[in-house]
Amino acid sequence: MRVLVVEDDDRFAEALASALTDHRHKVVRAGRADDGLRLARHADIVLLDLGLPDRPGLTALAELRRVSSVPLIVVTCSGEDHLVLRGLRAGADDYLVKPFRTDVLLARMDAVMRRGGRPRRGGCPVVEVGDVRVDLDARRVTVAGAPAALTHREFDVLALLAEDPGVVCTREKLLSTLWRDTMPSSSCSLNVHVANLRSKTGRPGLIVTLRGVGYRLGG
């Protein structure tokens, strides 16, 4: 897998690149946001630090999301709740706080990537809820005929719900399937992605919350 590491700390970037290379990933490193934005189109996944020298990482993330849905994990030193929320709302698929174990990063990378490459379960490849059309095979969502710009992880959440339209999907299933854990940080991330889906589609009733249980597609 081609991994773009956007990180200005040389020592950390070298250690991270070495660990990823040991696990047979091809790593490209950028030390500045401008270089990261230029190289992102060639990457399978981006690991983005927020403390970059030429511009704030969140600004770079927002700029990248305007032109690309490449899977992206924020990898940074600050785990303050408001920064985590801002990162996820800006389009990050996941958020990891330094220091972290390599196996944790690899698991998160795999969780972000594997839904897109996993064979879809049997059933209708296209699900329609009102004027929202979810093409599970093409990984495409349209609203009233217009494409909805979703991140990789946002589509994953919607696709898992769309695999069984009208059936409640528990929070535990969503978290264990997409994040591979049920930690509070992952639960918070799920909340943000659901809110993003409602906002980006402009259909607040697209996903119905069943408090204490989970979610289902509306309609």
Quick overview:
The chain folds into 2 domains: 2-117, 3-Layer(aba) Sandwich (Rossmann fold); 126-217, Orthogonal Bundle (Arc Repressor Mutant, subunit A), CATH 1.10.10. The protein is built from 8 helices and 12 strands.
Secondary-structure blueprint of this entry?
Layout: E1 2-6, H1 10-22, E2 26-30, H2 33-39, E3 45-48, H3 57-65, E4 72-76, H4 81-89, E5 94-97, H5 102-117, E6 126-129, E7 132-135, E8 140-143, E9 146-147, H6 152-162, E10 169-170, H7 171-179, H8 184-201, E11 207-210, E12 214-217
Parallel strand pairs: 1-2, 1-3, 3-4, 4-5
Antiparallel strand pairs: 6-7, 7-8, 8-9, 10-12, 11-12
Helix pairs in contact: 2-3, 4-8, 6-8
Explain what you see.
This protein has 2 domains: 2-117, Rossmann fold, CATH 3.40.50.2300; 126-217, Orthogonal Bundle (Arc Repressor Mutant, subunit A), CATH 1.10.10. The model is unreliable at 116-122 (pLDDT under 50). 42% of the residues lie in helices and 21% in strands. The protein has helices at residues 10-22, 33-39, 57-65, 81-89, 102-117, 152-162, 171-179, 184-201, and strands at residues 2-6, 26-30, 45-48, 72-76, 94-97, 126-129, 132-135, 140-143, 146-147, 169-170, 207-210, 214-217. It has 8 helices and 12 strands.
Keywords:
219 residues; alpha/beta; Rossmann fold; Arc Repressor Mutant, subunit A; 2 domains; five-stranded parallel beta sheet; four-stranded antiparallel beta sheet; 8 helices; globular; transcription regulation; Sensory transduction protein RegX3; Sig_transdc_resp-reg_receiver
